TrEMBL record:
<dbReference type="InterPro" id="IPR038494">
    <property type="entry name" value="IGPD_sf"/>
</dbReference>
<protein>
    <recommendedName>
        <fullName>Imidazoleglycerol-phosphate dehydratase</fullName>
        <ecNumber>4.2.1.19</ecNumber>
    </recommendedName>
</protein>
<keyword id="KW-0028">Amino-acid biosynthesis</keyword>
<comment type="similarity">
    <text>Belongs to the imidazoleglycerol-phosphate dehydratase family.</text>
</comment>
<dbReference type="GO" id="GO:0004424">
    <property type="term" value="F:imidazoleglycerol-phosphate dehydratase activity"/>
</dbReference>
<keyword id="KW-0963">Cytoplasm</keyword>
<dbReference type="Pfam" id="PF00475">
    <property type="entry name" value="IGPD"/>
</dbReference>
<dbReference type="GO" id="GO:0000105">
    <property type="term" value="P:L-histidine biosynthetic process"/>
</dbReference>
<dbReference type="InterPro" id="IPR020565">
    <property type="entry name" value="ImidazoleglycerP_deHydtase_CS"/>
</dbReference>
<dbReference type="InterPro" id="IPR020568">
    <property type="entry name" value="Ribosomal_Su5_D2-typ_SF"/>
</dbReference>
<dbReference type="InterPro" id="IPR000807">
    <property type="entry name" value="ImidazoleglycerolP_deHydtase"/>
</dbReference>
<comment type="pathway">
    <text>Amino-acid biosynthesis; L-histidine biosynthesis; L-histidine from 5-phospho-alpha-D-ribose 1-diphosphate: step 6/9.</text>
</comment>
<keyword id="KW-0456">Lyase</keyword>
<keyword id="KW-0368">Histidine biosynthesis</keyword>
<dbReference type="GO" id="GO:0005737">
    <property type="term" value="C:cytoplasm"/>
</dbReference>
Length: 194
């Protein structure tokens, strides 16, 4: 089937090249300049069963904000482009993911409308050298550009690393379910998902 996308995004703050494959090439190569984000995107691709090649360079001498947001934009655009008219996809996906003391719930709808609900509270302000508030910005940029509804709820958890990792894995698993091909119709009574 070959649902793929190539996204290049160049601004005064970041340079991003992204290649996404939902069906065939499942190679994963991630280099963002931020070790923790590389780790999260690697496990996102693995648990999402997608091919993801991403090279990003940003103004990290300032902070990670632009890098995280612009990667979220590029990844969202990649999914939007790769899904095309969304013919045959399940459309909805969800996952409840445990990671030690943490439990995260995710639901996604590739409806053509963007919305993010991010109900996550942290006990620390950073994980490694990354401000935890950047993960909300990342997923907002993703949802806006993938044109999907994305709900992320931390039911409980204390360890910041576990919380963030559980979020990325749960989002990946929910997306994996939603983009699966189950038929050949547009999954909407409107007959279109824009």
């Amino acid at each position: 089937m070959g649902r793929k996308a190539e996204i290049i995004r160049v601004t005064n703050e970041t340079e991003i090249k992204l290649s996404l494959s939902l069906d065939e090439d499942k190679e994963i190569l991630i280099s963002t300049g931020c070790g923790f984000l590389d780790h999260m995107l690697n496990l996102f691709a693995k648990h999402g069963d997608i091919g993801l090649k991403l090279k990003a360079k940003g103004d990290s001498h300032i902070d990670w904000h632009h890098t995280f947001e612009d990667i979220g934009i590029a990844l969202g655009k990649g999914f939007y482009e790769a899904l095309g008219d969304k013919k045959g996809i399940v459309r909805y996906g969800f996952f409840l993911l445990p990671m030690d003391e943490t439990l995260v719930e995710v639901a996604v709808d590739f409806s053509g409308r963007s919305y993010l609900n991010y109900d996550v509270k942290y006990y620390a302000g950073k994980v490694g050298d990354v401000d935890v508030e950047l993960f909300k910005e990342f997923f907002r940029a993703f949802a806006d550009n993938a044109k999907c509804n994305l709900h992320i709820v931390k039911r409980y958890g204390e360890n910041t690393h576990h919380i963030v990792e559980a979020i990325f894995k749960a989002v990946a698993r929910g997306i994996r379910m939603a983009v699966e091909i189950k038929g050949d119709d547009i999954p909407s009574t409107k007959g279109v998902l824009e």
